[in-house]
Design brief:
Structural class: mainly alpha
Distance between the termini: 59 Å
Shape: elongated
Order of helices and strands: HHHHHHHHH
Strand content: under 5%
Radius of gyration: 22 Å
Number of strands: 0
Number of helices: 9
Largest sheet: none
Length: about 240
């Protein structure tokens, strides 16, 4: 691939483009890890938010409020620069970036899923209790199938925010698309000026984010249409 790009774009354009594309894979890996890790923990926080236990709900509310109020840049500074310096330990940029992006994503995803769970009508909880179903049976059999439909589109859409958030990880030495692009933009090499490199980087980010945004909107329209049709049929 490198040879093909060099033959097509010459020097140094082909080399730069090849390195940017190679670095993009680390942006994708970090985004996926943060999405999965944040999603799993976010699901736990969302469940705590709706449990019939005051202390569990307070903990979940405090968690969501605190980390939504903390900028991602600050989390990266703390995990990648502050904590290592405070405790005198070396933290791999991969580890620091994963911790920061996971904390960031799980707070927002917990709120999205909490909203989806609470969007299910309270009457369905009451109806389930009236036929003898427990809280967990009601959640698993009645509420979750409906909440997943509601949460699907915003969950896919939030992946865009995670991808864009990875662009800040370069400040702690994470070698992703942004880090490699800035290095080339600052290099004293003809053909790697910022007005060339940054538009190329923007195009790569766009190619990652736009399909997800399009998919999210399509899911939202389709699921909204299904819901509308279902309501119309029920009314008829």
């Amino acid at each position: 691939m490198k040879e093909l790009l060099e033959a097509t774009f010459g020097q140094p354009g082909g080399v730069v483009l090849y390195q940017l594309l190679v670095a993009t894979q680390f942006t994708i890996y970090l985004s996926l890890i943060a999405f999965v890790g944040g999603g799993l923990i976010g699901a736990v926080i969302a469940f705590l938010r709706i449990l019939p236990n005051a202390w569990a709900r307070r903990f979940a509310i405090a968690w969501i409020w605190f980390f939504q109020s903390t900028p991602l840049l600050m989390l990266l500074f703390l995990s990648g620069l502050g904590m290592p310096r405070l405790f005198g330990v070396d933290v791999n940029p991969w580890v620091a970036a994963i911790i920061s992006l996971t904390i960031y994503s799980r707070a927002y995803m917990a709120d999205v899923w909490r909203g989806a769970l609470e969007s299910v009508a309270a009457g369905q909880w009451e109806g389930a209790r009236s036929v003898g179903l427990s809280f967990w049976q009601t959640l698993r059999l009645i509420v979750l199938p409906q909440a997943i439909v509601v949460a699907l589109a915003p969950t896919v859409g939030f992946m865009v925010q995670i991808i864009k958030g990875t662009s800040l990880a370069y400040i702690i030495g994470f070698r992703d698309l942004m880090a490699i692009g800035k290095r080339w933009a600052n290099a004293p090499v003809d053909g790697t000026e910022p007005f060339i490199i940054f538009p190329v980087m923007a195009l790569i980010y766009f190619s990652l984010c736009f399909p997800l945004s399009l998919w999210s909107r399509r899911l939202e329209r389709r699921l909204g249409t299904v819901s509308t049709k279902g309501s119309a049929n029920a009314a008829g």
